[in-house]
Amino acid sequence: MTVLFVIVLFGILLAVETPIAFAVGIIAFAGLMITGIGNEAVSAQRVFAGMNSYGLLALPLFILAGNLLVAGGIIRRLVDFVDLLVGRVRAGLAYVNLLANLMMAGLSGSATADTAALGSVMTPMMKQRGYSPDFAAALTISGAIVAPILPPSIIMVIYAIPTKLSIGALFFAGILPGLLIVLLLAIYVALSAKRISPPVVVAERQRSFVKATLDAIPVLLAPVIIVGGVRGGVVTATEAAAVLVAYALFLNIVLYRSTGLETLYTVFRESAITTATVMIVVGTSSLFAWFLAIENVPGAAREMFAFITDNPILFLVIVNIFLLVVGSFVDTVPAILIFVPILQPAAISYGIDPIHFAIVVIVNLMVGLNTPPVGTNLFVISSVTGRPIGGIVRALLPLYIVKLLALVTITYVPFLSLWLPRAAGLLP
Amino acid sequence: MSFLRSVDRVIDAALVLALAVIVAALVGQVALRYFAHAPLPWPEELCQFLLVAISFFGMYRAFEGSDHISLRWMSRKWGLQRYLRAAGLLCVMVFLAYIGWGGWNLTQSAWHQPSTALRLPMAIPYLVIPVSCVLSLLAVGTTLWCVLSGADAEGPAEENGADR
Amino acid sequence: ADFTIRASHGESTESPLHRGWQVFEAYVESASGGDIEVEIAPAGQLGSMTDALEQAKIGAIQMAHGDEQVMSTFYKPMMVLATPYLFNNDQEGMDFIYSAYFSEVREKMASESGLRLLSAASYGFRNFTNNVRVVKSAADMSGIRMRVPPSPMSLEMVKAMGGSPTPVPWEELYGAMQSGVVDGQENPIGVALDYSFYQVQKYMTLDNHQLGLNTMMINEAFFQSLTPELREIVVTGAKMGAATEYGERNYQARVIAVAKLRELGMEVYAPTPEEAATFRDAVREPMQAYLKSELDPAFVEAVYAEIDAARAADRAAVE
Ligand code: NA
Ligand code: NA
User: Fold this and answer.
1) How many structural domains comprise chain A?
2) Is residue A10 a part of any domain in this protein?
3) What's the gap in Å between B15 CA and the centre of ligand 1?
4) How far is CA A249 from the centre of its chain?
């Protein structure tokens, strides 16, 4: 009864445009009031404790590193570089888009940040060379979903908190699934090249290959620093994020000299506030999770699943459908913090590896980022390109099928998620 | 009003400084361990507390800039939306007051409760909760006033976006 | 039910600790004729150990799980329990908790902190593991980068032996050992097995430095609100729970875990009495000095005197 009331209240709060962080907090507050459990001090403690976690330190650091790299003009450098690599073939710019997305994913932890950054560079460029702007927008946000699947990943940092999974293992687990998504998207581009590509391809800029490569090398080194530093034993996963920030500062201030003090101040300030808007969701979700645990909702959910089926494959089908629906309405961070503590114990009871399950959940929610009614990246690309959402969604339809195909493969082939972390010795 | 403006400026500077300290402390810790084999026991905890402080004070600043993640779908020309949004904001204020009050109680009971590594009374990090909640209540109250009086008909995002 | 005890602990539902709490639940519910209902939230669902203890302290829940280190956050003198080489064996440590002398300390904790210590179960001694060499005596610790939790006493201990104490957050410990950020760590034996540390650690030394104690803590105001009959039932149930947990864990750690770790390729070394003494001697002075600087020196002296007296009495009983 209480749980039902809480769900309805949540819907109403979202509908009247209450910020999600506070909608989550208010329903927890209401639930505790109704059941007469807890008090104001424990509520404040849960919000505080939810944020007071070593693993979450990677969050501001990855956000800051991403913002610094964008402020330093690295997007242009990356796009120039891949344009030289694959820009000349048929539908070349579509591949450039995917490849740039892939490289950005290795630098940044957020699909939304990548959408905003790449969208502002790639979509005008594709439009200028004769591609449909709606297709350009659709392809950009489809490629951007790999940002949090490939390391580094803000979403994985958040996922690791309630589940106590190793961030390093999660990072490695995401690599093959992320590459698979990009590969499938590239196959789609190849198969539909005739339809999507403009008839004549004109290479516009005549830049020196050597210069573009030299320009891009320091940027391409950044992912090497993260993975190499962690594997080489110099730094922990969280410290790697700090070192990445230091490296980005070095690129901006010393090497490219692209960022002044005033810009730096703004980047730091904006990063702090973006961090806060995510962290406050983490905090109020932790209060909500406390309410759920006291009401024993995770236990009830496990029993419900056990009652419905004892087949892990069927369980995963249910989870897939459920999360696709959830992802269409709820933003990724609250979705993970609210539902993973309920779903993961059930998944483990079906013998599903929690690391594999994490990748399934994240890919699922990433697909949801691009679906209406609540699709954060859809809103972002729409505002960056000035195209109405309806047109972009139409261009997205075939891409949804590609992404669902990737999702199904990742869900039912655990090997894709588990092989690398095992090979790297991060999983038994 | 101008007092609050200067408070905001101080908070912004503190946010930037806190983030910079986190980066410096973690990079410094790597250097100390790797080169000097002598890492310190407290940087992790310091960074965690700074992150919590960034989160709570950033929460306040995000109210002013309308940066909190929310659904925005109602036309600002529609008459009823004002009252619907105001009701939501009122709930937010109740929640902030409750958490702020709880944070104050936590602070009071934790003066003799040391943190693990810094041995700092937990009351000090907990104090961030009531202070930021009071500031946020002022910010949300102002927004509520704007919504009800129709002063934000153009949408708050654009309005504040200009001065950043 | 007239009373509901909501309880939080940090371990899985398969753990000996959970079984202990289940025994507590079963006994208290039946012995009270249903007057008390117990609801256990396992696996840290309600928060970390410190968080849950704070919740119990402010009355948001009634009971929580504490240990020999975290209790001192709420009542400083409890710090003494985490002193390295204070106890010779598990039984000695648990007997001390229930001794007449320490019962007074527990009463003081209840009135000053709002948390009452009901019972304690040993979860085994913390032991060193590392990747550099077989550590047979304190001198072998020289230069080893040993991960310790961020507690001053653990840092002092490793430093006193000549090792280099390296704080690494628990979440990153496995990776830090694998990649060589640290050479070793110290935890109870079962941890090396449960968290697969044997995959990244070669040597274990059974030096038995710090006795791990899981405690059942209850909100003092709630406890006092019960009738004396019900209080007695709660106290008895807690002792039963602790006995169950200790029995299960002791069997698993002593009989199963060591054999399993050896089978999985770890070299487990048990120091001779002479070698064991080198560890104890290396840390005694710095530890006493540290404790006396933090706590009332008379209290520290009294604790050592009590334990020596109990040891002498045990010896006299068999002579
Ligand atoms: Na990424
Ligand atoms: Na969506």
Assistant:
1) 1
2) no
3) 25
4) 23
